[in-house]
Specification:
This protein has 227 residues and is mainly alpha-helical. The chain is built from seven helices and four strands.
């Protein structure tokens, strides 16, 4: 099994050319009193804003802007805590890895619950999307432990791109209203369709990667027969 300190982070995302210089600039100009744990709390505050924003859209669609602002705050805190630790060379590999992913699981629970309780996404669709995310996360953690590679992105899509998509859908939903598409057995909003596509993609990624990794590991670690 691989040690956490030796893990290789793979972050090959579409917005990387914009995100990496921005994070580097923020880390370089961050005041001395700002420390990684504080930025983790900022990320959690962003999650609470997202949850509250989606929940409050039951009263007025303008709260979609609060959810979008929450995604930006969450991106800043979630991306900068590790970036600042690496920039200042004050990493705490085991602590950081544990806290980061516990907070991530809690954040996703709140975000998708908020979505499911909003008038824009059916609760069952939000739940399946959350399940798909958690399944893929578990697979990533297992791969990290076995192979020492922590893969954050798939097909140039990572958490930053998903946040950007959420903000775009929020903006569209605010101006277009709760536009629905009537299918034979159900009516779906644009948010429903986007979440359904994401959920299907997550499940496909999980199963395709699980099958590929199983085949690769079967070759590396073949069955042993007693003599």
């Amino acid at each position: 099994m691989s040690e956490i300190e030796d893990h290789e982070r793979v972050v090959d995302i579409l917005l990387g050319p914009l995100e990496r210089p921005a994070l580097k600039w923020f880390a370089k100009n961050m005041p001395p009193w700002v420390f990684p744990d504080l930025l983790t709390l900022v990320g959690i505050a962003g999650t609470l804003m997202i949850f509250g924003g989606y929940l409050l859209t039951n009263y007025h669609p303008a709260f979609l802007w609060l959810a979008s602002l929450g995604f930006i705050v969450n991106w800043f805190g979630d991306s900068m805590d590790g970036t600042l630790a690496r920039f200042r060379d004050i990493q705490r590999p085991k602590y950081g890895f544990f806290v980061d992913h516990v907070v991530d699981a809690f954040s996703q629970l709140l975000i998708f619950t908020g979505l499911g309780l909003s008038p824009y996404v059916r609760f069952e669709i939000a739940s399946y999307t959350l399940i798909g995310y958690m399944m893929l996360s578990i697979l990533v953690y297992i791969q990290t432990n076995i192979k020492g590679v922590f893969k954050i992105s798939y097909g140039k899509i990572g958490p930053t791109e998903v946040r950007a998509i959420a903000i775009l859908v929020n903006t569209y939903s605010f101006f277009a209203g709760k536009f629905t598409i009537d299918l034979p057995f159900v009516s779906l909003t644009v948010f429903d369709l986007v979440c359904s596509i994401i959920a299907i993609a997550l499940f496909l990624l999980f199963f395709s990667n699980a099958i590929r990794e199983t085949n690769e590991l079967a070759k590396i670690d073949p069955p042993k027969h007693k003599k």
